[in-house]
Amino acid sequence: MKQKVLFLCTGNSCRSQMAEGWLRHLAGDRFEVVSAGTHPVGINPYAVKVMEEAGVDISKHVSERVDSYLDQPFHYVITVCDHAQESCPVFPGAATKLHWSFEDPAHATGSYEQKLIIFRKTRDEIASRIRHFLAEGS
């Protein structure tokens, strides 16, 4: 039976989407993975682009509200931004709640290339954290 994981952030546009994509890509046979936001704003095209560069397709992901998952049991609820951690609703069925704080690449400024650099950095940090999570035997 697959373990259920929910990645949660504020906008469900970048960090939680990348985390969902990475965990599906690296261990989708072991996990059922979704992501949501406290205030979803749609998927950021920079996130789609940098994940595509890494061979992970998140172009079909949908930005969803956390409310749609409140009645579901999860093995893990993982917040990936500080605001989501502070405003995270209670998930009575969640066996483990984790917090991984990543900078929000959506706040990057500068040229297209400069923004891509910031998104790539966040992408790689999330990939590293997912690999560590998997190595811990989760």
Which labels suit this protein?
138 residues; alpha/beta; Rossmann fold; 4-stranded parallel β-sheet; 4 helices; 38% helix; 16% strand
Could you describe the 3D structure shown?
The chain has 138 residues and is an alpha/beta fold. The chain has 4 helices and 4 strands. The chain has helices spanning 15-27, 45-53, 82-87, 112-135, and strands at residues 3-9, 31-37, 76-79, 96-99. Strand 1, helix 1 (15-27) and strand 2 (31-37) form a beta-alpha-beta unit. Helix 1 (15-27) packs across helix 4 and helix 2 crosses helix 4. The relative contact order is 0.22.
Could you write a compact summary of the structure shown?
With 138 residues, this protein is an alpha/beta fold. Helices cover 38% and strands 16% of the residues. The two termini are 13 Å apart.
Per-chain topology:
Layout: E1 3-9, H1 15-27, E2 31-37, H2 45-53, E3 76-79, H3 82-87, E4 96-99, H4 112-135
Parallel strand pairs: 1-2, 1-3, 3-4
Q: Indicate the mean pLDDT.
A: 91
- Low-confidence stretches at least 5 residues in length (pLDDT < 50)? none
CATH class: Alpha Beta
CATH architecture: 3-Layer(aba) Sandwich
E-strand count: 4
- Cα separation of the termini: 13 Å
Number of helices: 4
- Tally of separate domains: 1
N-to-C SSE series? EHEHEHEH
Shape by Cα distribution: globular
* Helix/sheet category: alpha/beta
